[in-house]
Amino acid sequence: MTAVTTVTTVTTRTIEYRADGLTMIGHLALPAGADRRPAVLVGPEGVGLSDVERRRADALAELGYVALAFDLHGGRYLSDPEEMLARCLPLLADPDRMRGIGHAALDVLRAEPRTDPDRIAAVGYGTGGAIALELGRDGVDLRAIATVNGLTTGRPGETARIHCPVWAGVGSEDPIMPPAQRDAFTAEMQAAGVDWRLVVYGGALHAFHHPPVGHIVRPGVGFHPQHAQRAWRDVVDLLAECLPTTE
User: Fold this and answer.
1) Could you give the dihedral angle defined by the CA atoms of residues 56, 58, 62 and 68, in that order, rounded to the nearest 10 degrees?
2) Distance CA 25, CA 15 (A)
3) Which of 84, 103, 160, 203 is deepest in the core (most CB within 10 A)?
4) Contact predicate 26/57, CB 8 Å
5) Nearest-angstrom CA–CA distance, 21 and 12
6) Which run of H or E residues covers position 58?
């Protein structure tokens, strides 16, 4: 546990923990005060944890949540698309590995004294969103799940173990999550009796929520500033509904 920093009313620190055979480096953001608070796991896109997710965790802490932005690659950010795919495609094909990464981060979040362990939600983007869904399919007691660009399907029957609302967002022009994938995802949610919502953001590509980066990205990836703001508001609204900061 290192690098404690206080910015306005939010205190942040990096936390090291083990998952997937790696030493992960997460970013924990704490709201003002000393009382127990509802908490949110924040999962990154396949490239890995960056300042984008750290700022989101900080923003959630400003709203009154304990927030942990978790790591995928042992402190690395995979800017090379081929290296990212080589790491993420086997991971996305292995629900047990995804669950292991998610549970390790969840254990860190629950161990934080400021966290109310009975009031936790998971918000994820891309691979991080897939991990959030797998925690739900594993029967974890979550208040809400939000996944952006991560409309993955699971093993037969396990989605019935999700007992919280699921919100999903995707760009209409996302070639990585095309209409067939959306349909499979929503059919799975519906068949399992999940309280689900899907928002399709018109004209948006994959990772439309992520500001431009200074390296090569996969085809079909692009920032859409208006929809990025809308998706963030939708996530915050979901949390306000399912995980209010006051009981």
Assistant:
1) 90
2) 6
3) 84
4) no
5) 25
6) helix 51-62
232-237: long-range pairs with CB below 8 Å, 24+: 232/56, 234/146, 234/167, 234/169, 234/199, 235/123, 235/146, 235/148, 235/167, 235/169, 236/63
In this predicted model, what pLDDT tens digit does every residue of 88-135 receive, in sequence order? 999 999 999 999 999 999 999 999 999 999 999 999 999 999 999 999
Sequence-separated (6 or more) residues with CB below 8 Å from residue 182: 151, 170, 198, 200
> Which residue has 């009975």 as its token pair?
118
42 membership: H or E segment, kind and range:
strand 37-43
What is residue 101's predicted lDDT score, i.e. its pLDDT? 98
Residue ranges for the chain with pLDDT beneath 50: 1-7
> pLDDT per residue over 218-241, tens digit each?
888 999 999 999 999 999 999 999
Give yes or no for a contact between 160 and 193, defined as CB atoms under 8 angstroms apart. Answer: yes
